[in-house]
Structure formats: structure tokens, C-alpha cells
């Protein structure tokens, strides 16, 4: 860890969620299908490139569906202090799976069932596979909506929207950072950014916190 201490960005949280869904969602979809009495693989799985942060999910071409979109909405109000000048933050994360089929009933079930698999995947992998230096404190499920979108090219489209809150420790540390700026801004084309002195790391404790207990 450098003298700056961790400086977390919203897209790091998005990327961690996407990586976990890419790895685990096919397994969870298979289990949802089995529990419903369907053959595993009954529904089309998203392609690797169909996990995205793009928000124009209503305009995806047919061959790219289903699509899973992950969007961080910024940091929730009132970031929390956790001692020694460290801040932890709660990131509202929207996850939208967009599906298509030939009729409204089929696509409604498809979207809701994929949404259930996403929900179980995220909640049952609270650490997001150790992402962000194992600094996640927990993930809460907030709610969901199953929305019909305008039909395109004789296909019915549904977007199943879910909201989670991901709590991350050590997003920023007050009092850290250098006492003086770089004397000469480096030229990115020729000069690497110099190494800063390191400070001792502190072990993190991962805590799963249920919002219903608050």
C-alpha cells in the first residue's frame, strides 16, 4: 500500500460485480432451471461481452441478448468513518438483465428467472470472490422490478431491474497522502510514475451485515 492509502473508484465496484456474475451466473441459472423442473441450459446464457456497464440496454441487437448491465450510482449519503481516519462507503448498484423472446409471457418468465439467479449469485458471494483487496463488508438486496420494454422486430423484450447496496471498507483515508506534489509532472509517454514509500497494511475483517437487523 502506498502513502496515499487506497483510493477506491466507482468502476472498481462495477467491475468486481461483473467479474463475479461472469464466473457464477451460468451455474446459478442452471440451478434455477433444475428447481423449476427444466433441463439445465434451457435458457440462453449471456455471452462474455454481454456483461457491460452500458446503459442503452434497450437498443442491443438480437444476437447480443440476453445482456447484463451493472451500474454504480455513486456513493450513498453520509459515508461512514471506521477509525484511524478511514472511510467506508455504501455503493447502490443496479443490475439489469435484458431478455427477449417471441411472446410476452415467455420473456417475462425468462427475465424474472435470470433475475433470481443474479440475486442468489450476488448475495451468496458477498466477498465478490475477494475483490477490492478483500475490503467488502457485505452486500444487501434492496428490491426489483420486471419492466416491459418497447417491442422491436416482432420480439418481446423485458428488463429485470434489481438494486443492491455494496459496502466497501477503506475507500479513502483522511490524513494520508504525500506532503508535497511531484516536482515535475511525468511525461506519460516516457516517464513511469515514481514509487511512493509504503505504509504498513492493516488486515481487513469481512463482515456480512443484514440490513433488516438495523
Characterization of this structure:
A hairpin with a 4-residue loop joins strand 3 (80-81) and strand 4 (86-101). Strands 1, 2, 3, 4, 5 and 6 form a 6-stranded mixed β-sheet that branches. The model is unreliable at 199-214 (pLDDT under 50). It contains 3 helices and 6 strands. With 214 residues, it is α+β, with helices and mostly antiparallel strands.
What does this entry show, briefly?
The chain is an alpha+beta fold and 214 residues long.
Task: Give keywords.
29% strand; 6-stranded mixed sheet
Assess the beta-strand content as a share of residues: 25-35%
- Summarize the helix and strand pattern as letters: HEEEEHHEE
The average pLDDT score comes to 83
Helix content: 10-25%
CA distance, first residue to last residue? 33 Å
Large-scale geometry: elongated
Low-confidence stretches: 199-214
**Sheet of most strands:** 6 strands, mixed
Radius of gyration: 20 Å
What would you call the structural class?
alpha+beta
Total number of helices: 3
Secondary structure tally: strands = 6
SSE blueprint:
Blueprint: H1 10-35, E1 51-52, E2 67-72, E3 80-81, E4 86-101, H2 104-123, H3 131-134, E5 136-152, E6 155-173
Parallel strand pairs: 1-2
Antiparallel strand pairs: 2-4, 3-4, 4-6, 5-6
Helix pairs in contact: 1-2
Amino acid at each position: 500500500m502506498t502513502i496515499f492509502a487506497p483510493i477506491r473508484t466507482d468502476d472498481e465496484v462495477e467491475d468486481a460485480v461483473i467479474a463475479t456474475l461472469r464466473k457464477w451466473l451460468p451455474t446459478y441459472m442452471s440451478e434455477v432451471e433444475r428447481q423449476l423442473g427444466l433441463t439445465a441450459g434451457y435458457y440462453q446464457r449471456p455471452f462474455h461481452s454481454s456483461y457491460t456497464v452500458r446503459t442503452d440496454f434497450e437498443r442491443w441487437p438480437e444476437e447480443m441478448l440476453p445482456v447484463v448491465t451493472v451500474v454504480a450510482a455513486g456513493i450513498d449519503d453520509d459515508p461512514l468513518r471506521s477509525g484511524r481516519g478511514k472511510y467506508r462507503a455504501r455503493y447502490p448498484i443496479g443490475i439489469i438483465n435484458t431478455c427477449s423472446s417471441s411472446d410476452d409471457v415467455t420473456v417475462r418468465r425468462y427475465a424474472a428467472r435470470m433475475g433470481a439467479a443474479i440475486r442468489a449469485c450476488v448475495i451468496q458471494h458477498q466477498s465478490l470472490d475477494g475483490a477490492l483487496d478483500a475490503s467488502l463488508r457485505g452486500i444487501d438486496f434492496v428490491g426489483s422490478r420486471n419492466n416491459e420494454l418497447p417491442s422491436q422486430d416482432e420480439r418481446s423484450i423485458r428488463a429485470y431491474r434489481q438494486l443492491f447496496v455494496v459496502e466497501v471498507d477503506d475507500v479513502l483515508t483522511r490524513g494520508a497522502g504525500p506532503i508535497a506534489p511531484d516536482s515535475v509532472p511525468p511525461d506519460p509517454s516516457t516517464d513511469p510514475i515514481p514509487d511512493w514509500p509504503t505504509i504498513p497494511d492493516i488486515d481487513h475483517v469481512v463482515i456480512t451485515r443484514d440490513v433488516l437487523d438495523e
